[in-house]
Design goal:
The protein has about 300 residues and is of the alpha/beta class. The protein is about 45% helix and about 15% strand. The protein has 13 helices and 9 strands. The strands form 2 sheets. It has a 5-stranded parallel β-sheet. Strands 2-1-3-4 form a 4-stranded parallel β-sheet, sandwiched between helices. Strand 1, helix 2 and strand 2 form a beta-alpha-beta unit. The longest helix is centred in the N-terminal third of the chain and has 20 residues. The protein is globular, with a radius of gyration of 19 Å.
Length: about 300
């Protein structure tokens, strides 16, 4: 693998499956209670410009299970790019720690952090990408389907960082990706263009959610207004209402179609209670697998 984990587009297909193989192994050891202290004595600095429950808990618990230690650094502790220059933070944290995980707003900040860090940097989320999430999602699909062959994923909602990372994944592993987004909320055009140029997957941008979910193996959604977009929330609720994942929409998919959501969910906004609580919902499996996949990524980079 590369020295850092910033984007799925920087991985090869083989490297993706190597991470999945290691994830399966580490998850099995954890379930059996077997020791797997592959990062014993190592530390991970966790830089949070954006707060998150799942990201902090999954990385911190994962490092503990691997025999290492994670340090939570809040926006007040760091002030990345405001209180202190990104390149200075990178070089200081590199002197203290064996790895850095950062959950930030601007994607350029994670790039600069990696440029000046002498230890591996993991992208825990930026406004542009959310690679750890999609690695966890696809591992979860692999667990349930036993294969990623002939996979169709329908992503419904905003063309946000999660959608962008789905597109990056589709640039490495063959699949059909149908993005059902409101007009004007398309994913990043450069990421879309680069992925389509690989010719690996069929990537569709549609403005009808019913068309997007047809024949899908997975229907996936995310919140309509991400962190930092709170001022747009009311307007977005009106624009995105036709894109709610509800029982009526799911009837346009197959009876065995899985439902996924990266969480936290705004219930009865982007998804109804009936869908998220349905037997086809695997949202809590994917939430758990964040920890297992991230453990594998940390071992690949830091062991």
């Amino acid at each position: 693998m590369n020295k850092h984990f910033l984007s799925i587009a920087e991985l090869t297909k083989d490297e993706i499956y190597e991470i999945f193989d290691l994830t399966k192994e580490l998850k099995a050891k954890q379930k059996k209670g077997e020791s797997h202290h592959l990062l014993k004595g190592k530390t991970l600095a966790m830089v949070f410009a954006k707060p998150s429950a799942r990201t902090r808990i999954s990385f911190e618990s994962g490092m503990f299970q691997l025999g290492g230690h994670a340090l939570y650094l809040s926006p007040n502790d760091i002030g990345l790019g405001t209180r202190e220059a990104v390149k200075d933070v990178a070089r200081v944290l590199s002197r203290y720690n064996d790895g850095i995980m950062a959950r930030l707003f601007g994607h350029n900040d994670i790039i600069e952090l990696a440029e000046y860090s002498s230890v591996p940097v993991i992208n825990g989320l930026t406004d542009l990408l959310h690679p750890c999430q999609i690695m966890a999602d696809t591992f979860t699909i692999l667990e349930h389907r036993k294969t990623l062959d002939n996979l169709k994923v329908a992503f419904i909602g905003d063309g946000n960082n999660v959608a962008n990372s789905w597109i990056n994944f589709a640039s490495r592993v063959p699949m059909t990706l149908a993005l059902g987004v409101p007009d004007g909320f398309d994913p990043n055009p450069d990421i879309l263009k680069n992925a389509r140029q690989t010719g690996i997957s069929s990537i569709l941008v549609l403005h009808d959610p019913r068309e997007a979910v047809k024949d899908a193996d997975v229907v996936y959604t995310d919140v309509w207004a991400s962190m930092g977009q709170e001022a747009e929330a009311t307007k977005r609720k009106q624009l995105f209402k036709p894109f709610q994942v509800n029982d009526a929409l799911m009837k346009h998919a197959r009876p065995d179609t899985f439902f996924m959501h990266c969480l936290p969910a705004h219930r009865n906004e982007e998804v109804t209670d009936s869908v998220i609580e349905s037997p086809n919902s695997i949202v809590f499996d994917e939430a758990e697998n964040r920890m297992h996949v991230q453990k594998a990524i940390m071992v690949k980079l830091m062991a």
